[in-house]
Amino acid sequence: MQENFFVYQRRALRPLLVWGIGSSVLGALMLPFAGFWRHFGLQAVAWGVIDVLLAIIGRRSALLKAERMATGELEERDALREAEQFRKILTVNAGLDVGYILVGLAVALRYAERPDRQGLGYGIATQGAFLLVFDALLARQVGQRMDADDHE
């Protein structure tokens, strides 16, 4: 690989961390409001906290594996195996993200007369949309890295 995969993975998870922090903070600022914005904010906080935790855990794991690779405890084939597994997880997640978007929109449209439920639904759809873009683009990048390595 052109660089240690785990160094790349750690850097690639940074946008998830930034999104999670921003989502949590902005969502928390919406909590004093009523109806739509309160429930939109609740979704932002909940999903944001989960995104932050996933990013921290993933970045920490990648850092530890990058160190192990630098010391020779892990080999290039281990990194390639991890890259393929990561790509598969991202691809599955992208499929789930489509489901989140559809469920969120269905809730918002089903309860069009309820601003709180609309906020809930659009909040879910918004988080799903970000995650779809993030997961799909990252899966594509990981796949391209793996293809480039096959041609070296």
What can you tell me about this protein's structure?
With 152 residues, this protein is mainly alpha-helical. Helix content is 87%, strand content 0%. It has 5 helices and no strands. The longest helix is centred in the middle third of the chain and has 36 residues, at 35-70. The relative contact order is 0.16. The model has no long low-confidence stretch (mean pLDDT 95).
Summarize model confidence as the mean pLDDT. 95
Structural class designation:
mainly alpha
Question: What Rg do the Cα atoms give?
Answer: 18 Å
Separate helix tally: 5
List keywords for this structure.
152 residues; mainly alpha; 5 helices; elongated
What is the element layout, followed by pairings?
Blueprint (H helix, E strand, L loop, with lengths): L4 H8 L1 H17 L4 H36 L5 H35 L4 H36 L2
Summarize the structure.
By secondary structure, the chain is mainly α. Helices cover 87% and strands 0% of the residues.
